[in-house]
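Worked problem 6 (solution included).
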Amino acid sequence: MVALTYDRPDPGVLIRYNEAKVARGIAECLLAGNMPLGKEDLSPQQRMAYLRNRCSLNANIQLPCLHAILGFHPLDGRLRSGEFAELAYRYMDLIGFGRQPFLLYSHWDTYHPHLHLVTTNIEPDGNQIYTHRLALRSSIPAAQRIESEFGLVRARSVKAARNSKGTGIVAYSTGKRPASNYMAEAISFLRRNYRFSCLTGWNALLGLYGIRAYQATGDPSKLRYYLTDHNGRPISRGLSERKIFSGPRMALGADLPGYSSGVTPLRVRTVLAQTCSSGDPSPERLSRALSAQGAEAVSVWSAVGDREIVVIDHIWRQAVPASMLGLEAKQADLLERAIRKEGRSAEKGQLQEGNSVLNHRKIQRIYI
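Solution. The predicted structure is:
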């Protein structure tokens, strides 16, 4: 987490800036803290008037407004709005502004999550809260303490490795170890580290390792797993989760380990929107933009037999179907063309032997 603070003369300028982004659908007012009413009951004009009135209590103060920007690592984007609000209250308390009124805005127009906090250094009795060298005295120590308390990625000690799955899973090689061991290793990693909201998203993740899940005949809540060749054809007998794991099986639905209704398309949608808004984008340019942000788009056969595009975000570690992205026609067409251009399919998971991809004609059917 990084916290930047600035002294400003007028909160109105900052509030108008943030509210303009809210109107464009790329920001949200999360909180009206320490105000007589909540954000739902205050119009933007009333929020502005309240802070301006507080700033006017001491005419001798030239810079009565404090503007703080709280920036987070992309992995911290999984925090919910309520957690960001709790974090903001904690930050205000740690820098000595715990009783001051403030507005909190979340912006979605960058690749990393960040918050804008607008408050005042004028207390109800007209006294001023001392803000000289606030960053060194309070803000930076507060950010470091919040990193520890909320389990955030530490700004000073971690360098994100973008576009890297970092699984440490040894690629499958025929005859060198049981296929069930390889499948268990890959499935366990994905269940622990990635989020998805449907079987199509789950298969997009599995396809990275040349595995596909099918709903069992007679019981759609049960899954069977197969190794596939680079054309998506099964090359092994199906394994149930009971044979792969000793623990409870994974059932489709809200109790599915790794399943999350909280999969969010915000970051991926930002990448697509910014790529499409800059000139005349090409499929190659979109692929490069996704790759630069640690994401990739794949095509997957859905449960009903249709092809569906899924974007896998390795930074936020989630699989997002294109149907969840709410894309404009131009963006959807560009994503479709990017998939066709690269021939990228989740069913083309590479089964590697050493450093070379196995030729599917030479792969004999594997019996487990």
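Discussion: Residues 157-168, 249-258, 347-368 have pLDDT under 50 and may be disordered.
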